[in-house]
């Protein structure tokens, strides 16, 4: 029942519909009850809100760093796709390994009150790292190597010879920053 006519035409069609429903209710009450129950059930399904299936969380790096949450919902109002869904939802674009990038870092020599080199401090920005456990740190008296599998690779020579036994590393989860401090020999 679709009408693009005047209000009078629409009212006339609605009157015919109500008349047909009245006839059905008088002549076949069981069929009328089945029709009404079906309409109520379909209406409730149609008006039902989307149902949450899963939620994805990812980090946005540009233009402003932050977290993005994506809710994946199912909704009866949206028909299923006509084409057959492929089993492999994630397609591998390239199997070649990605070269790790060199992270931003700052290397400073700290001095004591007399101006004598006291320690070396390395600060590394790791925006795609969530925890220290992802980092592999190797150090000698001359250099330090930081690796995060498939993400970062940093080899830095110390400007002064250091005492490896005095090294301490702290990872700030909120800022995603690794700070390494070591005393100079």
Automatic annotation (TrEMBL):
This is PIH1D1/2/3 CS-like domain-containing protein. One of its GO terms (biological process) is rRNA processing. InterPro entries: PIH1/Kintoun_subfamily, PIH1D1/2/3_CS-like. It holds the Pfam family PIH1_CS. GO terms for cellular component: cytoplasm; R2TP complex; ribonucleoprotein complex. Residues 103-185 form the PIH1D1/2/3 CS-like domain. Belongs to the PIH1 family. It comes from the Eukaryota.
């Amino acid at each position: 029942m679709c009408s693009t006519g005047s209000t009078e035409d629409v009212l006339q069609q609605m009157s015919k519909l109500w008349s047909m429903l009245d006839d059905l209710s008088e002549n076949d009450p069981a069929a009328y009850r089945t029709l009404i129950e079906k309409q109520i059930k379909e209406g409730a399904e149609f008006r039902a809100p989307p149902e949450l299936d899963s939620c994805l969380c990812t980090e946005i790096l540009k233009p402003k760093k932050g977290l993005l949450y994506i809710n994946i919902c199912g909704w009866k109002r949206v028909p299923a796709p006509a084409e057959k869904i492929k089993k492999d939802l994630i397609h591998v674009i390239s199997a070649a390994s990605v070269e790790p990038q060199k992270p931003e870092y700052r290397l400073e020599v700290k001095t004591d009150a007399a101006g004598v080199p006291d320690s070396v401090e390395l600060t590394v920005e790791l925006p795609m790292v969530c925890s220290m456990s992802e980092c592999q740190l190797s150090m000698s008296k001359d250099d330090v190597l930081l690796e995060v599998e498939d993400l970062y690779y940093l080899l830095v020579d110390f400007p002064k010879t250091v005492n490896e036994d005095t090294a301490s590393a702290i990872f700030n989860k909120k800022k995603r920053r690794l700070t390494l401090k070591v005393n100079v020999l």
